[in-house]
Design goal:
- It contains 19 helices and 8 strands.
- 53% of the residues lie in helices and 8% in strands.
- By secondary structure, it is mostly helical.
């Protein structure tokens, strides 16, 4: 509003039932950041003074000074921070929850590095300086993985900005940042190592951790999705879902337990990738799942049916509450370290070394290899674990030739099956 020769930003006047009133109103960008319309004093001179005070607050906010708690931090347009802010608001929120967690570190690192700088500051030369500061030793040294993840995220952000902010971003300085991808983990859990770990978990009283490992071995799901399993995720698999294959249904149906005569399994929406996975569960794993589900329902007796359905199957033994993922991973390490100590005391150095290399996330890869050894094709494995077909192929290309089971099958295929003893005796008699 213009008062004499002076224009006062945000100052407006309106005719109301009580007469002429003055207001200060934010512009769209300020409103989006959290600034609200305020009613100014009735006297024009006081209204002008109050509006100017609010504009001083806005100016201070833009310079990075103090701001009300409900107001977002100001990000200057045409800065790298502005690009990051838009990426968060428009792209990151559409990604899976797990992906958002992983990307958070990289985006924060990029913001600390050059968030307050003009976009022109982010050049290929400066990106390489950032690379060297994060990973001074180069590939294969400490810092390689976080540096690669950060630079890769920077490349993705600029690629997005070139499409969505083409008037501001015209090139991608993160292209060819000169750091190769870290070597993928190449660890699988041997069956004996699973047994050693789970036995130690039970001995230490962490039965839920041993159960989680067994579920991970069987289903190939991530620890976050396993920890979120509820009774509602345990569902009947109908004959229709099995394409009316009665023989298949009979093989999977259990003759005991609370769901005797039915095929049961897990159905969940994976947190990463947002893929629905439905996996029938049979044998000892089914018995263990139904025992855990029964216990979860008993713990929540008296609650509404909907609440019981949402109860976690795996809870922390010390407090009866759902596991937090970081806490769970810390306790997995505790159990693993105890299993390593046990192996060393027994003189089993090889097992101790294998256990020392294991992480819970390796169970997902282990499941793929196990299913591959059983002869499942890529599509069958993908239906269970939720991996893409391309990822399944990569895993099997790395591991399958090196597993003893597959090598043994290859040898038998080459030499042919041994004759049965009866056949051999008949051959001797005929000579």
């Amino acid at each position: 509003m213009k008062i004499g020769k002076e224009r006062i930003a945000g100052l407006t006047q309106k005719n109301t039932a009580g007469g002429l009133r003055y207001y200060w109103e934010p512009n769209p960008a300020q409103r989006k950041a959290g600034w609200k319309t305020i009613t100014l004093p009735i006297e024009l001179s006081d209204a002008i003074a109050t509006a100017k005070k609010r504009n001083d607050d806005i100016a201070n906010w833009k310079e990075g000074g103090a701001r009300p708690k409900a107001i977002q931090r100001y990000v200057k347009r045409a800065t790298f921070g502005h690009v990051l802010a838009r990426y968060r608001a428009e792209k990151l929120v559409k990604l899976g929850a797990e992906t958002q967690k992983v990307d958070k570190y990289a985006i924060e690192k990029l913001e600390q590095w050059a968030g307050d700088q003009a976009i022109s500051y982010v050049t290929r030369a400066r990106v390489r300086i950032l690379r060297d500061s994060m990973c001074p030793g180069g590939p294969g040294t400490p810092g390689h993985h976080p540096a690669y993840s950060t630079l890769k995220k920077g490349r993705a952000i600029f690629a997005w900005a070139m499409a969505e902010m083409e008037d501001v971003v015209t090139s991608n300085p993160f292209e060819n940042f000169g750091l190769p991808a870290p070597d993928p983990r190449q660890v699988v859990w041997e069956p004996d190592d699973v047994t050693a770990f789970c036995d130690m978990a039970d001995e230490l009283g962490w039965h839920s951790i041993g159960r989680a490992v067994r579920i991970g071995t069987y289903t190939g799901q991530r620890e976050g999705d396993i920890l979120k399993l509820t009774p509602a995720d345990w569902r009947e698999v109908t004959l229709r879902q099995l394409r009316f294959d009665k023989e298949l249904y009979a093989q999977l149906a259990s003759d005991h337990g609370p769901n005797a005569g039915k095929v049961m399994g897990i159905r969940l929406l994976q947190s990463k990738g947002k893929r629905w996975i439905g996996t029938p569960i049979e044998g000892e794993m089914r018995d263990e799942m139904e025992t855990a589900i029964t216990a979860a329902k008993q713990r929540n007796q008296g609650k509404e049916i909907a609440e019981i359905a949402k109860a976690r199957i795996l809870i922390k033994e010390t407090n009866g509450k759902p596991w937090e993922q970081k806490d769970f991973i810390r306790h997995v390490k505790t159990v693993r370290d105890a299993a390593i100590d046990r192996a060393r005391k027994l003189g089993d150095v090889a097992r101790a070394e294998r256990l020392d290399a294991l992480q819970f996330r390796d169970l997902r890869r282990t499941c793929v290899v196990t299913l591959g050894e059983l002869g499942l094709d890529d599509a069958g494995i993908s239906a269970i674990t939720g991996h893409t077909l391309a990822t399944i192929k990569k895993i099997l290309e790395v591991y399958m030739p090196r597993t003893e089971a597959m090598a043994a099958r290859a040898v038998v295929a080459r030499i042919g099956p041994k004759p049965k003893k009866d056949d051999a005796a008949e051959k001797e008699q005929s000579v």
